[in-house]
Amino acid sequence: MRPRFPIVLFLGLVTLARAAAPQAQPVQGITEGRWSGRLTIKSANRAAEPLSAEVNLRILGPARGALFDIPEQSMYGYPLDEVSWSASRIHFVLDALGPDEELRFEGYYASSPLPQGGGSSSKDGLIIGTAASKSWKSSFLLRRTELPAVAGETFMEIPVNGGSLPGSLLEPSQWWGRFPLVVLFAGAGAADRNGNNYNVPGMSNSLAQIASALAARGVESFRFDKRGSGEAYVLEKGGVLPSLEELADDGAAVLRQFLKQEDHPRIIAAGMNEGAWVAAMALARLESEGLSVDGLAVMAASGESPKESLEKMLESLDEARKEEASRIVAALLTNGTVPEPSETLAEFFAPSRLAWLSSWLAVDPAKLFASVKAPILFIYGDSDLQADKPSFERLLSARPASAARLVPSMNYALKTIGSEEENYDSFTNPAFPVSTGLVDLLEAFAKAKPAPGGTTPYPGPSSR
To answer: If you average pLDDT over residues 100-124, what whole number do you get?
Structure first.
């Protein structure tokens, strides 16, 4: 089963306003796209007032599944299971309520719309239905709504093993000519093309903000949902987390697509934390084929080895559990199989995590970046509390001739913050903007220009 974001279901919710007004043109049956409305829910086991919340259902298309939002619960882009739909009916399962509480939805298209305020009727049809789990019963009503268009943005599918990765190509709309391209690699976990992770309440929108800021500076960008995230969540087969090797193969496929098009004077890969590792691995694959990009921007990445990180995670355990973990890791790296873990370690060493864990433990970040032939720009925020300076400086030691810049007031989420409270809030609040200094550096790197003002050379192992 995929890692899930637990929610406390609707306790204390107030009744929310109805969804946006219907479109001018009628919708003929259930189609892919966004449907918005309300979910009303009550306990199946006791008498209580029903609770209501605004929800969004985004149907992604055949074999793509669907995503679900409950904004009042700060839940966005939650992947649904068992999604099937036709013009007249839809079925899906939301498993965010806890063990054995899968909420099973059954809906149908109503061609005779329900009356709205003032006695008028909607020109569009509705999806009307019910849902139930062991402890909950609910009803829902959804109307088709349009996602806001972004000027200059087009959607692309990049073929990869087992399917394709959906992504957003954002072209500067107020500029002319051929643009340099920055390909953005999302960070750790299920982070999607916008930098958001359904396991984390709220939204960051860090990568979407970078793309928008670059477009305003005459730089094109492509950001994509990696395998197991966003609209590509169904590529995570059987709930097994994809390995870093699989993600690197996918990343190489994305970059290869643009390299072969020869539409851009320069192509830069830019990765955020673990995404920088994946980007470097992807470049190694391309370089073995005789292909290369013009640079790699490394943002908020650590040079600490995963083995060291794991040791820190296990520090609070007793000696017996530490020794057990060491035996499991040794077995995993030797033959890819592990003995059955104790209850304490069962979740961490779950079968669904072993492919990712094995590839993660095999990474040596310093050696990885030292092996990349393309020019590298290392970028570090002086308010980063997650990737500390000593671990970052390991990367600089591995690439002493590479450029490295320090961005003031930028944290691990690539946001500009002014306090510890803002630091944590910025991970889940899109109101915090990405650092202007970061975007300026990416623009200069993409255009092969000198580093801009507002940042300083990082005072690391060598003079920069």
So the answer is: 70
The DSSP string of 346-405 is TTTT-GGGHHHHHHHHT--HHHHHHH--S-EEEEEETT-SSS-HHHHHHHHHHSTTSEEE
**Six-digit token string for 34:** 């966004």
pLDDT of 248: 98
Q: What is the mean pLDDT of the chain?
A: 89
What pLDDT is stored for residue 9 in this prediction? 35
CATH of residue 88: 2.40.160
Nearest CA among 216, 209, 372 for reference residue 301:
372
* pLDDT tens-digit map of 133-154: 999 999 999 999 988 889 999 9
User: What CATH number is attached to the domain comprising 427?
Assistant: 3.40.50.1820
Q: Are residues 61 and 106 in the same domain?
A: yes
- If asked whether residues 191 and 126 sit together in one domain, one would say no
Query: For the chain, how many helices (H) and strands (E)?
Result: 10, 18
Range among 231-240, 288-297, 344-353 with highest mean pLDDT value: 288-297
* Pairwise CA distance, residues 375 & 400, whole Å: 12
Span 157-179, pLDDT tens digits = 999 999 999 999 999 988 788 99
CB 189 within 8 A of CB 204: no
Which amino acid is located at 176 in the chain? W
Tokens 């509705």 found at: 126
The CA radius of gyration of the chain, in Å to the nearest whole number, is 24
If asked whether residues 375 and 266 sit together in one domain, one would say yes
Range of the domain at 129: 33-145
- Our count of domains for the chain comes to 3
Tokens (6 digits) for 460: 């690391």
Backbone φ and ψ for 39, nearest 5 degrees, come out as -115, 125
* H/E run at residue 152: none
**What pTM, to 2 d.p., does this model score?**
0.90
Quick one: which H or E segment has residue 46? none
What's the one-letter identity of residue 314?
L
Q: Give the whole-angstrom CA distance, residue 198 versus residue 411.
A: 21
Residue 400 tokens, joined: 């002493």
Torsion angle (degrees, nearest 10) of CA 232, 234, 237, 239: 100
Does residue 219 share a domain with residue 182? yes
317: left (phi over 0), alpha (psi -120 to 50) or beta: beta
